[in-house]
């Protein structure tokens, strides 16, 4: 028994390449949120950088898997790194209002 091949086989020279879907990332998907289409891509978190999650305002340490989301028609500056749980719960979370200690709660 021979070992399994993990690399794709070479394409013959006269054969056209297989059609690509999206931008070439197999796990990238499009979701609708707040009336806008968002591109969502899971990330392994091996870049060595730290990010701030907009859902919980906590730090995502390096090495932790998370999700990168941005509007379909947005640019590189519109990308946001979310915890997976925060992205999944984004509709259940309200706006986080930060108050001072003595501020009224209305």
TrEMBL record:
Biased composition (Basic residues): 1-11
Highest taxon of the lineage: Bacteria
Region (Disordered): 1-29
Protein name: ATP/GTP-binding protein
Annotated organism of origin: Wenjunlia vitaminophila (Streptomyces vitaminophilus)
């Amino acid at each position: 028994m021979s070992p399994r091949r993990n690399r794709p086989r070479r394409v013959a020279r006269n054969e056209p390449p297989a059609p690509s879907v999206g931008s070439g990332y197999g796990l990238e998907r499009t979701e609708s949120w707040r009336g806008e289409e968002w591109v969502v891509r899971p990330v392994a978190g091996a870049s060595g950088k730290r990010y701030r999650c907009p859902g919980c305002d906590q730090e995502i340490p390096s090495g932790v898997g998370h999700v990168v989301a941005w509007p379909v028609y947005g640019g590189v500056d519109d990308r946001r790194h979310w915890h997976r749980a925060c992205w999944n719960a984004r509709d259940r979370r309200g706006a986080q209002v930060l108050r001072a200690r003595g501020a009224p709660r209305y």
